Amino acid sequence: MITDELTDAIYLEPTKQAPEQARRFLSERLTEWDVDDFNGRLIVSELVTNSYVHGAGTIVVRVFRDEQNGLPKVEVWDEGANLPVVRPPNYASISGRGLVMVAALATDWGVRPFPGGGKAVWALLPT
């Protein structure tokens, strides 16, 4: 369960408004760092949408500098047990392309399961 308050995070209800709120939060942080937010807004929108559709509980979005390389990093946490899966292309489907897009736009990305349940899906943003 997600309980700790973080200063570099926003806590979102799992609603249709969550992706927009996450984009605004990320954009404000990247603007403070003088980093272009175009790809980051798309990436965070996809990750939050996945949490809203496939996850569970409160959605937590963190934006911070990666300790190893200083790149902007976004993490999206939720309490759902299911890990994200990159699906093979299905050109007849109207969904299922989000993680493919994240993989194409991010410098790197991955998922970190939490020992007590839930997960964080993260992406390093290009600068």
UniProtKB/TrEMBL annotation:
InterPro entries: Anti-sigma-factor_SerPK, HATPase_C_sf, HATPase_dom
Entry keyword Kinase: yes
Alphabetized Gene3D superfamilies for the sequence: Histidine kinase-like ATPase, C-terminal domain
Keyword annotations of the record: Kinase, Serine/threonine-protein kinase, Transferase
A Pfam entry, by short name: HATPase_c_2
Membrane spanning stretches: none
Residue ranges of domain Histidine kinase/HSP90-like ATPase in the record: 21-121
Keyword presence, Kinase: yes
Protein name: Anti-sigma regulatory factor (Ser/Thr protein kinase)
Organism: Actinomadura algeriensis
Taxonomic placement: Bacteria, Bacillati, Actinomycetota, Actinomycetes, Streptosporangiales
